[in-house]
Design brief:
278 residues, alpha+beta, Jelly Rolls, 2 domains, 8 helices, binds 2-oxoglutaric acid
Length: 278
């Protein structure tokens, strides 16, 4: 099923989020959980209230299996990201979040709060949280405050007035503006709530995770063209991201000049500009 992009984007701009339901099959969510299992085994819980002291997180998933990059490249989600951020946007973070029974609510926060630009502000980032297990009223479904992406310096009330829970079946995803106030919920159930969260940022910002260290050229070689671009093997015109004054894809693909990638197409558009990096 294709998205109705105009109405989805209108809802996103109004509320600061949209929920896309059941984009993944049960088999796909099970495969993601299975790929995660070896990294979760024996892992300590989070180090503080924000990470969650009854929460398991696995960071830097970009290099922990092609299946995670495929999730970050989901075409329906990217059809939105492509319209919300500038071409050559970047993957900022790719992590899993398993909230265990007894976990308390996470502090309210935004995912772009570490960029020192006054609010309300131009769009800096888009986050997604995929339900790999059902998100329910009881098990810690992400809570969001609709419309709060448009706030200035206000902060949420402790009683979470106006918040809604992103209750959704496994395989669904909540896509939200990085400026939207949200938090992981409390888990009063007897089961875990597993999420995977790819987050994207404008190409002129520093990503949260250092993707070029997480996925050096040998790893990038195994990625799709789109994957390489979002990891930072690309140019934000005319020359952000250059290496030795040249396009970073040359480090990954010696035949870079001879086939067309999305990056290449972007770079071609700026050929006419002085100092464009190719
Ligand atoms: O787990 C969730 O539902 C939200 C987590 C979150 O927002 C974060 O850790 O930044």
């Amino acid at each position: 099923m294709d998205l109705d992009l105009p109405s989805t984007l209108r809802a996103f701009e109004r509320d600061g989020y949209v929920i896309l339901r059941e984009l993944l099959s049960r088999a796909e969510t099970e495969a993601l959980a299975a790929a995660l299992a070896p990294y979760e085994a024996g892992r300590p819980m989070g180090r503080n209230d924000f990470e969650g002291e009854r929460t398991h997180r696995v960071y830097s998933l970009a290099a922990k299996g092609e299946i995670f990059m495929r999730l970050a490249e989901n075409p329906r989600v990217l059809s939105l990201v492509d319209r919300l951020l500038l071409p050559s946007w970047l993957l900022s973070n790719l992590q899993s979040i398993r909230i265990h029974p007894g976990e308390t609510p996470q502090p309210w926060h935004t995912d772009d709060g570490f960029y020192p630009i006054p609010r309300p502000r131009t769009k800096l980032a888009v986050s997604t949280i995929w339900a790999i297990e059902d998100f329910t009223e009881e098990n810690g479904a992400t809570e969001v405050i609709p419309g709060s992406h448009l706030w200035g310096d206000e902060t949420p009330h402790d009683d979470a007035r106006g918040a809604i829970k992103a209750v959704m079946p496994r395989g669904s995803v909540i896509v939200f503006d990085g400026a939207l106030w949200h938090r992981g919920g409390l888990n009063t159930s007897s089961a875990t709530r597993l999420a995977i969260s790819p987050q994207y940022c404008q190409p002129w910002l520093r990503p949260q995770e250092s993707q070029l260290l997480i996925a050096p050229p040998d790893v990038a070689r195994t990625c799709s063209d789109r994957g390489r671009s979002m990891l930072g093997y690309g140019i934000h015109p005319p020359f952000l991201g250059q290496v030795e004054g040249m396009h970073p894809l040359r480090l990954v693909d010696p035949s870079y000049r001879h086939h067309k990638t999305q990056d290449h197409a972007v770079a071609e558009q700026v050929l006419a500009r002085p100092k464009a990096v190719m």
